[in-house]
Structure formats: structure tokens, C-alpha cells
Design brief:
60s Ribosomal Protein L30, Chain: A, alpha/beta, 5-stranded mixed beta sheet, 30% strand, Endonuclease_RusA-like, two-stranded antiparallel ribbon, 124 residues
């Protein structure tokens, strides 16, 4: 089992997305917010990449400790975490062939120590 703790307040990827225009084609596209980009960069400081990214079936359990009791979308938090794990070289991809389940994931409250705890276990 791999355990990763990211000691910063978790954020979702979908809040405050930016609609930008491709200069070459003139088409619009949605880009992540600057806040998410900063969050992903900060996370990379706490995640040590593996020699080979995981390419087998795993359960990714995420426990989010939020700094406030505000309503939060667990699915969006998990999407951001999975993308960070792929970007940092922990998972090869975040599709259904690798992430088989997210059993045990939940959102809790800890005003003094917001963080994300990630547990990655091989599924047999």
C-alpha cells in the first residue's frame, strides 16, 4: 500500500474554470483556473514520483480534511486528486482500467490541519 499525505487545503478542479480562445483556430476551450494550477504545483512538492507509474488495478482511497464545513463535491475533489497523481507520475492514467474503485473516500472537517490523505492499494 502506498500512503501519500498532502498537507495543504484540498480544492476542486472545476471551480473558476477559464474560457479561453485558441489564437490559431479561434475556437474556445476550457482551461483550469490559476488556483488549481497553483494547487497542482504545490502538491508535486509532496509527492515523490515512482520509478514506474502504476499500471495495474488499484483502489484509490482519498480522505479530504477541509478547512471549513462548506459543502464540497467529493467527485470533483477526487477528479483533481487523480489528475495530480497522473501528473506526478504515481498513476499511468486515471481511467477505469487502473482506478477500479475509490472505496472509503470521504470528506471530513479539520480547520487547523487541512490536508489530503491518499491510500493506494492493489486490487486482486
Amino acid at each position: 500500500m502506498i500512503k501519500i499525505i498532502i498537507p495543504i487545503a484540498p480544492i476542486t478542479k472545476k471551480n473558476s474554470q477559464q474560457i479561453l480562445i485558441n489564437k490559431r483556430t479561434g475556437r474556445r476551450f476550457i482551461a483550469p483556473s490559476q488556483q488549481y494550477k497553483h494547487y497542482a504545483k504545490e502538491c508535486s512538492y509532496y509527492i515523490k514520483p515512482l520509478k514506474e507509474p502504476i499500471d495495474y488495478e488499484v483502489n484509490v482511497k482519498c480522505i479530504y480534511y477541509m478547512p471549513s464545513r462548506r459543502k464540497t463535491d467529493l467527485t470533483n475533489l477526487m477528479e483533481a486528486t487523480h489528475d495530480v497523481l497522473v501528473d506526478c507520475g504515481i498513476l499511468k492514467d486515471d481511467n477505469y482500467k487502473i482506478i477500479k474503485s475509490v472505496d472509503g473516500s470521504r470528506v471530513l472537517y479539520d480547520r487547523n490541519n487541512p490536508r489530503t490523505e491518499i491510500y493506494i492499494e492493489r486490487v486482486e
